[in-house]
């Protein structure tokens, strides 16, 4: 008999803002472990806004989810049984399979083995995982980050945004973050070392960016969508680069707004380019560099950890109300990399 487990499936296609009732926790029996596969008991599951893109029944760069299918997600877990030559019980891996207590992997696709025990596992789903790598490759490969530039980051207090701002600061850039609410803005300046933070809920972003960046903006790292990009374009410098990382404001809109300020692409020779961070695999050098910055206290991160699968539907819906402070996670088992006293 295969491993009995529980997982979260899509109960109905989502229109507009997600609600916890869009999901259902169901019992599931995994198939017997075939040759070339390994069984993972998940320890932490990630709750990311990007998941929303597959939940409306519409195609994105990955196929849409069907009703009753497990919702895709990143996780870290422990291999507990293996018939795969490269993985043995006890290995800690990060996977992109889904919101489930146990998973079977075929050993293909996104799998990162985590061996650095100097940090707990949670940052490997945030600042050292997909979020941090999106910031790293988005700024460096796509943005062409250089010392002395002025960089604006939107959804700056999120896992991707806060990593992006800190990478730019360490490179010697002036960093301006755009985020919702005073608490997030204070955290960005006081803890994450941003030079300036703009609360888009109470301020006009275009005017605030123009004031905070009198010499113009060289890179916009956008996680939000076209309205935010339009607000920053008038401040962009000649040859400025807009890095399209995410579109969190657009994920719930049927008809998201188009860009208005496109003339500046000609007058200011602007460039706009998106990324899918998996194109930059393997991430080994970037992961190592980020881990050293984190261990040295040069890059900080925040996460919010709920208990069990049950915490996920509400945690996910809350992302679109701006409730999260950094990466949201669900804990399913104690973290073997945490010091004993904290377990
Ligand atoms: N390109 C890639 O390969 C790649 C990989 C991973 C992630 N991403 C993208 O990176 C972005 C950031 O991801 P993350 O995991 O760090 O999540 P995140 O930034 O924490 O996303 C949630 C936050 O988005 C903001 N938000 C939600 N609805 C909004 C709206 N309507 N308008 C403006 N802001 C809104 C809220 O912050 P405020 O309170 O500040 O508004 C909320 O706390 C996402 O768009 C994600 O899809 C891209």
UniProtKB/TrEMBL annotation:
<dbReference type="InterPro" id="IPR036291">
    <property type="entry name" value="NAD(P)-bd_dom_sf"/>
</dbReference>
<dbReference type="InterPro" id="IPR013149">
    <property type="entry name" value="ADH-like_C"/>
</dbReference>
<dbReference type="Pfam" id="PF16884">
    <property type="entry name" value="ADH_N_2"/>
</dbReference>
<dbReference type="InterPro" id="IPR020843">
    <property type="entry name" value="ER"/>
</dbReference>
<protein>
    <submittedName>
        <fullName>NADP-dependent oxidoreductase</fullName>
    </submittedName>
</protein>
<dbReference type="InterPro" id="IPR045010">
    <property type="entry name" value="MDR_fam"/>
</dbReference>
<feature type="domain" description="Enoyl reductase (ER)">
    <location>
        <begin position="50"/>
        <end position="330"/>
    </location>
</feature>
<dbReference type="InterPro" id="IPR011032">
    <property type="entry name" value="GroES-like_sf"/>
</dbReference>
<keyword id="KW-0560">Oxidoreductase</keyword>
<dbReference type="InterPro" id="IPR041694">
    <property type="entry name" value="ADH_N_2"/>
</dbReference>
<dbReference type="Pfam" id="PF00107">
    <property type="entry name" value="ADH_zinc_N"/>
</dbReference>
<dbReference type="GO" id="GO:0016628">
    <property type="term" value="F:oxidoreductase activity, acting on the CH-CH group of donors, NAD or NADP as acceptor"/>
</dbReference>
